[in-house]
Amino acid sequence: MSTRPTVLVGAGGMLGSAFRRNMLPDPVCLGRDQLDVSQPGVLVDRIASLGPSLVINCAADTDVERAESDPGPAYAANALLPELLAQACRKAGSRLVHFSSTGCYGDWKRTPYSDWDPLRPTTAHHASKAAGEAAVREAWPDSLILRLGWLYGGDPGHRKNFVWARMNEARSAPEMFSDPHQTGTPTWVGDIVAQTLRILDAGLSGTYNCVAGGAVTRFDYVQRILELAGHDTRLRPRRFERKAPVSPNEAAVNTKLGLLHLDIMPRWDEALARYVASLAAAA
Length: 283
Ligand SMILES: NC(=O)c1ccc[n+]([C@@H]2O[C@H](COP(=O)([O-])OP(=O)(O)OC[C@H]3O[C@@H](n4cnc5c(N)ncnc54)[C@H](OP(=O)(O)O)[C@@H]3O)[C@@H](O)[C@H]2O)c1
Known about the structure:
The protein is an alpha/beta fold. Helices cover 42% and strands 16% of the residues.
């Protein structure tokens, strides 16, 4: 009996690598060279011809600073690619999972954003992510869109693994700096995989916040990493100057998942403690 495959897009990224490790049977992984948005017909037909039951899109252009001066690649990867993936899914009757960002809510609230809050992105990157969400909803309404924020995990040495990077930095730096003015919700990618599969199991489509519980400043987050890893490196507060006007509040709350009794995300500090302990055990 032939079974329809799962297609994983962006498998080399931080979140994509977590899906790749946790999916059975192995997904079909598509890389950049198979996802050329300047050949939309080829891209759509390639994916549709695989006849997948599910397409998981972890690909994104995540260079927030560069997008301010050169937004083209951000719109290609974050808006156009998801739209084409949604068209392919509509053609093949596949479910689509797409990831957005809690940074899309913007800077108009001091408390964590709820799923029903309007998106008012303050950066080109987040505008491109918001455009991607809208394009997916329009092209294939039977899609699942999860808004994420402040990810860590994947392969320990992954260039974007924030926790691993801070632990490494603490080994050699006499003192470290972090921003007390940024608030968010640190979230382990393994928890996102589990939450995504839970929502798929429930057969739901729609748009949801998907973050760990609670909120913390970047400074307190780094302080907690250092404490958990047993480093006594001095941490000092410093406001980070960025080209991109990223909102100081990227924290969110899983209001919809909570109301649906589907929220299985742990608190950020509990997940972080488990993750740091797992790195120590593996070392
Ligand atoms: N990281 C965070 O804190 C965060 C916060 C909010 C939302 N998110 C969202 O979560 C999702 C996963 O993010 P992540 O942190 O895992 O990203 P990541 O580590 O930067 O990985 C992105 C992946 O996308 C691929 N990619 C980039 N541009 C592409 C293009 N034009 N065509 C095809 N593939 C392309 C990359 O391929 P290469 O390996 O070839 O470069 C890489 O595999 C994204 O939707 C992101 O917007 C992340």
